[in-house]
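Project standup — Tuesday

K.O.: blocked on the structure for the chain from last sprint. Re-posting the sequence here as requested.
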Amino acid sequence: MTGAFEGELIRRARTGDQDAFAELVAIHAPQVYGALRRFGLDSDEADETAQEVFVRAWRGLPRFEERAKLSTWLYRIAFNEAQRQLSRHVSRRAGADLEADDATASLPESPDLAPEAQTLDREFEQVLERALGRLPADWRAAVVLRDLEGLSTQEAAEVAGVSQAAFKSRLHRGRMQLRGLLEPYLQLEEAERGG
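H.V.: unblocked you, prediction finished:
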């Protein structure tokens, strides 16, 4: 989609055009939902929170200054809403984290001998999701925004509400811990391919 087309939809939505806003929602909803899931919300929480993100966006649209892209602004709202949602469930999540204390125990022992690419992709996504869930929230958010959502460092730092230097530190730490969590899976996969 061109920036001019999105700009026109934003302009129309600001005047109260609900159809234009619905089109913006349709364009951005998959990315917002995906980011909420990767921030650590389960599917029901992500559905509910995505709706809240777009309610807040509708209400805040007259104040949207377009200094950032609309997608970056939506990620910022999603990030804040995810943090609120996660803080409400600290005790429930703490119990779940204790059950999954050994991250490597939940990794598959070896990939299928002759898996199809689609099965491997789903398997890796599940392993990645579990590994992301093991990262501290700030580090996970940095990895999700920069590496999975593809935001620039500047955009991702704005979404997280920190300086670029602080964001880079979180990103580096998150990447290092994620690499350590994924290494056993990747080594097994490599051994199966090579051997």
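K.O.: great, moving the ticket to review. The domain at 102-195 is CATH 1.10.10.10 (Arc Repressor Mutant, subunit A). The chain has a mean pLDDT of 83.
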